[in-house]
Amino acid sequence: AASAAYPTLGTTVFLRLQVELDGCSTAYSDPVEFGVESAATVYAGVDQNICEGEIALMASAFYGGAASSVTWTTSGDGSFDDPNEILAIYTPGPMDISSGMVTLTVTTNDPQGAECDPVSDDMVLTIDPAATVDAGDDMDICYLNLPVQLDGSFGGAATSASWSGGLGSFSPSPSTLNATYDPHPSEVGTIVSLTLTTNDPGTACGPVSDNVLINIGPGVVINSYVPASMERTICYGGSTTFRVNTDPTFLAVHDWMYSFNGIDWMDNFNDLGFATYIESGFDDYTELELGGGMPNIPGDVMYVRVNILDRGCDETSSIFTLNINGPTGWDLQPSDLTVCHDETLASFTATPFNDGAGTFTFQWQYDNGGGWTNVPASVAGYNTNTLFLTPAASFWPGVGGTVDLRLNATIDECGTITTEVVVFEVQQCSFTELTTIFAMDGSSFMQGQSRDGVFLIQNIGNDDTSTPVSFVINVPSETVMTNMIDPMATTANVFGGVAVNNDDWNITPIPIGYLIESKAGVVIPGNGGISVIGINFTAVGAPNSQGVIRGFLQTGTAGDVDPSNNSTSVGFIIN
């Protein structure tokens, strides 16, 4: 038993020696300090078993006594998350896993210098090999390619594995790693999850499993096309879209392609020169947009189609055709035209150009003062690039008149281009131009006296007369024309005698005088040809009265066009 002076744990006492000798005084030694300190304690915890791939928590470890800290160490190649934490977490290294066992040691610090030593404790960590399994890669498969070929595998501590899941069947059995799976009809169009599970290896590692997802495509169903005609036309620099509508798909892949001959297909749309190229795909349709820029399309015709891939099923659409028109303009403009009045045909031609694939439609128009009007279908060439006009056209100008013409050329998507305005004019080039002169000696015209006079009709135009010539003699009341010179007469007694052509003419009395008309077949030659009519007058007016005899050539008669030469007159005095 401890003496009364023995210190308790963690306390100290002071001791000295007392010496007594008879006759001497009592002596004491120097005091000494005597203490009892606590020793360090540590516990590494119970041995553990873990599975390969797991970590170990030193959950049951502790330390005490004089120890104030600890340090974990390993006999292997693993690592602690914090080696100075008593409840540290240990992650085994490859060598630990390979050997299947590792010793972990926890050691306290040196608590009191030389009086007490650090202490240590060990625990054994056993690492059991894990089972491994791989159900294979997820897959998309078309319903046309069923059944599904599975590709499972296992390893590690596993000695077998089996398939489960789905509503279909495994062949030859679920325990065959590379079995085939035949889905139930209801699984077409859905995602089927199959599980491959290992046996239980009977260690700290239990069975493991892995899933494979099988997306079973029901096939791509194309419902309709936009445009339904499968053909689009754009003008150079324009835009267009093509669309294919389908039954709903599941994250389908849409691959648009183009061809210049319908045989060789490419998908590098960026090489074509369009400013806009957009492929878009949705659950129930896919669309291609092209436009702008300066496309370089051989022959200005290209073909496009799309291949749609959905869960292993693919479908290629029918072929669209894209026609590109333009740029457009005029290679040949029509020209102004002037024709003679006796022309019976006038033609106008204009030639447009189209650097694209389309064909123009044409419409000639005219404007004769009432605004632009389409040339009617009764006119030859009204809807071609060459117009043939005849005087039968309602807008054929009169002599000296004009009409404006232009051609509209229209092509799909590029619209209408219009030529310059041209002028069509009709001129009098060859004509009959008549002039008349009346000659009579009007001086010393005695009352009751008869005197000859002549009317001279001259054709100063280029053409002979071709229709009857007529004119009117206006005789004042002071004068009475008693008769024409005898039709058989050849001379009128005027200024010494003038040869006459009375047998070519007829005379008819009218209220103001007389109407004189050429007989049938009478022609007054052009370029100065003449015809002379002799007439005998008798003066019956009052003495010293004055009068005027006038002749009026009928305007337009025999083709005459200039009325300035169509009248003549002679004045006289009755003595």
Q: Any overview of this molecule?
A:
The protein has 575 residues and is mainly β. It folds into 6 domains: 1-36, no CATH class; 40-128, Sandwich (Immunoglobulin-like), CATH 2.60.40.10; 131-217, Immunoglobulins (Immunoglobulin-like, Sandwich), CATH 2.60.40; 222-325, Immunoglobulins (Immunoglobulin-like, Sandwich), CATH 2.60.40.10; 329-427, Sandwich (Immunoglobulin-like); 434-574, Immunoglobulin-like, CATH 2.60.40.290. The chain is built from 1 helix and 52 strands. Strands 33, 36, 37, 39, 40 and 41 form a 6-stranded mixed sheet that branches. Strands 24, 26, 29, 30 and 31 form a 5-stranded mixed sheet that branches. The mean pLDDT is 88.
